[in-house]
TrEMBL record:
Keyword Transmembrane helix included in the entry's annotation: yes
Residue ranges occupied by any RDD domain in the UniProt entry: 21-146
Protein source organism: Bremerella volcania
Compartment list: Cell membrane
Protein name from the UniProt record: RDD family protein
Source domain of life: Bacteria
InterPro entries, per database record: Pra-immunoreactive, RDD
């Protein structure tokens, strides 16, 4: 009998030691720290506007200017800074880094999509926390679909394997997303 050939049509990806993936507790702390940073940035941006309004320099509603600028700041923090080698304050304090399935930093497009899914998906925090507990790589769903991992800053890939489509059926949902296939342990 011939050995079964593995499908490599979706490419290959790195995988890490299971202890190197960020768990629920670290992710919660990262969410909290980064949320505090974003709120503080918003307050720091609003203070000069308030002084300009009180001083009579600005006589119209500055909300559009504020929100446009603030959304750009949020994007800058959650996309380019998060993917950089420095990471966000939450990533730095928790010793976490985000990487693509190929091991390098995710693209700016992937990080922007990751941020938009997080912002525009209601109840994503609860789904994320539930999914981490069920996932062997401790990925949240948006990371599964976008091919990103949250790993310890000093983690090194322990192997590389073919990427296959994984299917999950639960609570009337049928999900399919790419997943790296680890070699089966030998006895």
């Amino acid at each position: 009998m011939e050995p079964r050939l593995l499908d490599h049509s979706l490419g290959e990806a790195d995988y890490y030691d299971p202890r190197d993936y960020a768990g629920v507790f670290r992710r919660l702390l990262i969410y909290f720290i980064d949320l505090v940073v974003l709120v503080m940035l918003g307050v720091l941006m609003w203070i000069p506007l308030m002084f300009l309004i009180i001083g009579g320099v600005i006589r119209t509603d500055p909300s559009f200017l504020f929100w446009t600028t603030y959304l750009l700041v949020v994007w800058g923090y959650l996309a380019p800074i998060k993917r950089s080698r420095f990471g966000t304050l939450g990533y730095r304090l928790m010793g976490i880094n985000i990487v693509s399935a190929q091991g390098g930093p995710p693209s700016l497009l992937v990080m922007t999509a990751r941020m938009l899914i997080w912002i525009l998906t209601p109840f994503s925090l609860f789904v994320d926390l539930f999914w981490i507990g069920a996932d062997s790589e401790r990925q949240i769903l948006r990371d599964c679909y976008l091919g990103t991992y949250l790993i310890k800053r000093n983690a090194k890939a322990i192997g590389r394997g073919p990427v296959n489509l994984t299917r999950y059926f639960a609570m009337s949902f049928a999900l399919a997303y790419p997943r790296v296939r680890r070699p089966k342990p030998t006895d």
